[in-house]
Amino acid sequence: MAKLKEYECPACGAMMEFNVATQKLRCPYCATELAADALETEEDGSSAEGGDSAQESSAAYSGNYTQEELEHLRVYSCESCGAEIVADENTAASKCPYCGNNVVMTGQFAGGKKPDGVIPFKITKEEAQNIYKEHIKTRWLAPKIFKDNRKIDEIKGVYVPFYLVSGTAYSHVQGKGYRNGRSWSDSQYNYTETQEYDLDRDISLPLKDLPSICTDKANSILMESIEPFDTNGLKPYAGGFLAGFSAEKYKESYVQQCLRQAEERMATSAYESVVSSINEYSSKNITSHSEKIHGLSHKYCLLPVWFFTERYADKAWNVVINGQTGKVAGILPEDKKKFILSVLIKAVIIGAVAYAVKFFLKF
After folding, report:
1. Is residue 118 part of a domain?
2. What is the pLDDT of residues 16-73, one digit of tens each?
3. Among 23, 80, 13, which Cα is nearest to 244's?
4. For residues 125, 126, 129 and 135, what is the CA-based torsion angle, rounded to 10 degrees?
5. 248 shares its domain with 341
6. Is 53 domain-assigned?
7. pTM, two decimal places
8. Exposed/middle/buried for 285, CB within 10 Å: 0-12, 13-18, 19+?
9. Which residues does residue 320 pair with via DSSP β-bridges, in sequence order?
10. CA atoms of 311 and 152, how far apart (whole Å)
11. Element of type H or E holding 256
């Protein structure tokens, strides 16, 4: 059994973890640091000299995990939402990042497609906690449990499976454009001359590396809300990036929906682009449009997301943070007592203002 997948420190033998600040594997005991892919072997299909570009990653690293890699991957299964979290054998997991329920280790990873690339975490856990605290300050109606420091400490870093989809979106629109001409008046009416033009316009829009989530466990709207990810930071997959983190298992049955969603977003982008380019008229009326996607390609990648998940009123509530940029999004419940209090305060303020206005109008 190779030491590789245990990420054993060559200096003291302790287990190394991926350090977000240095972007290297780091030993927590003797501070030895290595490149994230320094402990990979030729059998893994990668090395420390692997290509930097996403294209090279896709060409060189597509395929399945090696048997040696599989021996050191573990699956944590959520009995509530069904999520399967893949982690290295040294990663501890106790709660599902998606629904907040306890997870149980079901054993060795049975296999799966190996990612073409990974965007490493750039935001540390401490930075993610601070971002969350600033976010929660603006949500003062949120229940107290969401502000509990002990709960905030449970924030989890997860590599979420995405397809990065590229292609060219074509949109063709037709309709009418209107321009205001001369104006005049008579004794009864005001008149404005309106000039009408036929609209017939199209656009061909190249799109590269559009993220499309490849799991049904994460909220796709929240995931879109923390975009964009800078895909220039995409690295060839190496197991060292996962050390100390976990990853949602790639879901084969969700691929077609994942690609469909990407095509819909690409078509919408093309349509909105061509419509926004029609700005030479006072107003316009689009009567028909059609979109097509050409040259579709994709690569399977892991993107970094920090999850704060808490169960409240029998429901899971998530705040997610882009692990590369720090952009945050989330939907939180309202505490009923706080809501009632806020309504009473507003009523008192409105009443006080109304009374003051009425009082001063007497003078």
Report:
1. yes
2. 788 888 888 887 766 778 887 776 654 444 444 444 443 433 334 456 777 777 777 7
3. 23
4. -120
5. no
6. yes
7. 0.75
8. exposed
9. 307, 329
10. 13
11. helix 255-276
